[in-house]
Fold this sequence. Notes:
The complex is a heterodimer.
Chain A: E1 6-9, E2 18-24, H1 28-33, E3 36-37, E4 48-56, E5 59-69, E6 80-86, H2 89-101, E7 105-106, H3 111-118, H4 127-147, H5 151-176, H6 188-208, H7 213-217, E8 219-224, H8 231-241, E9 257-263, E10 266-271, H9 274-277, H10 282-297, E11 300-306, H11 313-321, E12 327-332, E13 348-349, H12 358-369, H13 378-406, H14 411-429, H15 434-444
Parallel strand pairs in A: 1-7, 8-10, 8-11, 11-12, 12-13
Antiparallel strand pairs in A: 1-2, 2-6, 3-4, 4-5, 5-6, 9-10
Chain B: E1 4-7, H1 11-21, E2 27-31, E3 45-47, H2 51-60, H3 65-72, E4 73-79, E5 89-94, H4 98-108, E6 113-117, E7 120-126, E8 129-135, E9 140-142, E10 145-148, E11 157-160, E12 163-166, H5 178-184, E13 189-196, E14 199-201, E15 211-213, E16 238-242, H6 245-254, H7 276-282, E17 290-295, E18 302-306, H8 314-322, E19 332-334, E20 337-344, E21 361-363, H9 373-391, H10 405-416, H11 440-450, H12 456-478, E22 480-481, H13 485-493, E23 503-504, H14 505-510, H15 516-519, H16 531-542, H17 544-561, H18 579-588, H19 593-598, H20 604-619
Parallel strand pairs in B: 1-2, 1-10, 2-6, 10-21
Antiparallel strand pairs in B: 3-5, 4-5, 7-8, 8-9, 11-12, 11-20, 13-20, 14-18, 14-19, 15-16, 16-17, 17-18, 22-23
Helix pairs in contact in B: 1-9, 2-9, 2-11, 3-4, 6-8, 11-12, 12-16
Amino acid sequence: xxxxxxxxxxTAIGYSAINVIRVSGIEAFEMVSSIFKGxxxxxxxxxTVHYGHIVFQDAIIDEVVVTVFKAPRSFxxxxxxxxxxxxxxxxxxxxxxxxxxxxxxxxEPGEFTRRAYLNGRIDLTQAESIMDMINAKTRLQLQLAxxxxxxxxxxxxxxxxxxLLDIIAIIEVNxxxxxxxxxxxxxxxxxxxxxxxxxxxxxxxxxKADSGKVIRDGIKTVIVGKPxxxxxxxxxxxxxxxxxxxxDISGTTRDLVEGELRLGGLLLRLIDTAGVRETEDIxxxxxxxxTKKALEQADLVILVLDQSRELSKEDExxxxxxxxxxxxxxxxxxxxxxxxxxxxxxxxxxxxxxKQGMNALEVALQDLFIHASMHESTEVVLGNTRHxxxxxxxxQALQDALHAAQSHLPIDMVEIDVKNAWTALxxxxxxxATDQLIQSLFSKFCLGK
Amino acid sequence: MFQAIVIGGGHAGVExxxxxxRRNLKTLLVTGNIKMISAMSCNPSIGGPAKGIxxxxxxxxxxxxxxxxxxxxLQMKMLNYSKGPAVRALRAQADKILYPRxxxxxxxxxxxxxxxEAYVSQLLITDQLVSGIQLESGEQIQAGCxxxxxxTYMEGAILVGATKTSSGPDKQKPSIGLSxxxxxxxxxxxxxxxxxxxxxxxxxxxxxKMELAPxxxxxxxxxxxxxxxxxxxxxxxxxLIHTAEQTHKIIHANLRKSAMYSGLxxxxxxxxxxxxxxxxxxxxxxxRHQLFIEPESQFLDEVYLQGFSTSMPHDVQEEMVHSLPxxxxxxxxxxxxxxxYDAIHPTDLWPTLESKRVKHLFFAGQVNGxxxxxxxxxxxxxxxxxxxxxxxxxxxxxxRRDEAYIGVLIDDLVTKGTEEPYRMLTSRAEFRLLLRHDNxxxxxxxxxxxxxLISQQRYDYFTxxxxxxxxxxxxxxxxxxxxxxxxxxxxxxxxxGEIKDKTPYFDLLKRPEVEYIPMMSFLEDTTVTxxxxxxxxxxxxKYEGYIKKALVEAQKSIKEEKILIPVDIDYSQLKNLxxxxxxxxxxIRPLTIGxxxxxxxVNPSDVQTILVYMRSIKAK
Lengths: 449, 620
């Protein structure tokens, strides 16, 4: 669709204090309103600014200011909303995801300008150069959009697509060949468990996608290190620095969250601090398997080493065990003289005792979670944002389908939602076509008079 | 001197001829055999999912198919009733003798229409413009436009077992030579195949071994004008049986004798209407296939064996039929056969169904690669209307995909083309919730009236209905039910849930358990007088959310349809087009940005390139 509603980040995603997210198209007001807690943007005057919150799936994503431009008095001549959010790519991504899940499409490079041009808003004498840009960039983006899907994710998506197509095909056969008796008649009773199962699969995938989770739920953090490297003093220093510590809650969630602290604007949820607090050798005490298990659950590992000494076998074991994880390697005891571990790359040299170098830990954390995406190309970040947004749209469509089926709507209506889910999913893998559906009808069922 | 000539008197030809003549355009219909006009060479059934909606659309545009069916049916059934309003569809078993007879009467009494029994040997063409036809007798007839609706007659060949005979359907003479001329003109043709099952003498059947499939006993009719409806005393039943193990053995043992598998058939057969041997080969794990016995006519002693189309030799057909339950002693009245014929590529046509190659030459029906009476009639009507508009110097009449199944049908054909006989399916329509059979008149009557194809009386009736629907919906929005014990008691009595707050009737009707007609007893002063209005009100309110969403999608697609691409655009000037896109665009020459975006192989970036190019041309 050329005239769908598009969304994009108008500022360069990076270290800026504020990002502007622009939404343009017929449904711009409705879409933003659906995630905006504040005034009803569909009824406000044009060229007005409003304060409020972006809320998605019951979580406040950010405190924002939105500016409303009604067609045709806007940059693109369409309805436009500009949302000013706090800086950092994560918040921007979350807002994009939320809007994509409401049906917005991620704008192609230069698409706002192109719309402005096509709608006669701006006059570019060199249309040729725009065309070059469109082509080069969209082709690149298409490539990236699909290549950024890893083999595993793609397989999962495709199997979900097949499951959805199977349901749709049965309903279509029921409809187009009502007398064909070699297929079950899909009813709401039959479809409900199938949809529930699909919803669960998609929720699992979304939970695993590590994007917004970090902001919403915090970062599950494990502090590891052999005895006497200063894990507990580091922990205490961190806790003392954090004036906003919530509680020491134990066993309240399915992970053993034992404390929460804010560092560099991020929420760290400490798990398995038992091994840290006791000064005994954790590897020996709880065993390698258990350590591995603790590591598995973690979004972040803080590996504490004693930089006043050479690496021991235990240190090396921990370095190996954590190499696949997002980790920060801390060289503690910087107050005891020059480091013996300066050959370890990206080691943060600090002293929990004197608090020197604690700032570097904060920066490392931000680098890892807030600016990590800057090391990747913008397209890949956006590509992932698009995938997650589309997954959320798929989920929403399936929840609508479930609701429709539970409200005893006719199967034809339920199928509309199931088809929407199928389409949204297809936009991730890049293959959706009515022909595909018809193909599957006639290959699965022996139809015809 | 005629203004228009229609070649062929099948379901496409008759609608084309009538739509022209009814607009006072002098029209000639040339047919090989007047008695075969509107013949039902395959099953005597009209409508069904998607197809039934086509019939209603034809009716709303002043076509004849629905009205004639209403006067000649043997059984009428509403399919998919419980599956949802968008997919409900009427299907009739029509009387195979009465239907064509009635249609012939209408044609013969139609002013401005002349019918001639003859075969056309070639088209008269100068400078890529058609000016008339030449008959086999050598006689030449001039006209401003020509519509080709040759169905399965062009180079038709009947295939049974190892024999291939040059023939049209029902032992009619085929049309020879016309397709050679088309190819010479640069309109390539390709072979398609279809088939028909054996007909069985009805008094040689043991019905006790079959499952009864009756009509549903309701007085449904296709036409929005119910004055044509002729109710019947007793609907004729169909019967359901399944193939037996022995049937499959016989077919497998004789597979090489089938024309389909002996290499005799060159045409591509439809997935939608496979022969029984096809079904067995493609679905080898299926133990049985269902077959329907359908009545053909009150004047014939034979029935149609639906699902048993074959090109086996006669002796094998005998064996096959006798292996079926209830048909052990059946006598075959007519043997099954496969038929091959020449079709054109519909992508060689504009969305008006006019040839891109030869001006004023239109094509409609099975010759365009479709299958089915309804698909043919819809195209015939549209080709007739567009030929008429051309003669009257009016704008082309193109229905959008969000307006009608007819729009979907023609857009699919001219934009995507087809490699096998194309059948209309509800799954082809992305806006099917908007394209319901119950609202075909609301969607299309305005056009029918503008074109002069529906009467003032009928248009007035339609306008009244439309106003009533709107008034009633706004009344439901503005009238409220108050939550008091008495009201709640009555609600419970009616089988509805209680209300807690002041509730507009509109919201009450949205509840799953609430139906409109029982709800009406809670309202006073209703102006609604017809069940049709009730149906519209109920659907509009109950499915408001879904309908609204579909309308938003439709709006976006309409916006794309409104951007016209200049017909003379030179795609070789657009250097950024992908190679595949360029060649497809050059071939299809889409009229709108919407159509361009639906061509397979044309990506959004290619469409953007066209848009930017068009804008840059405009700027200069």
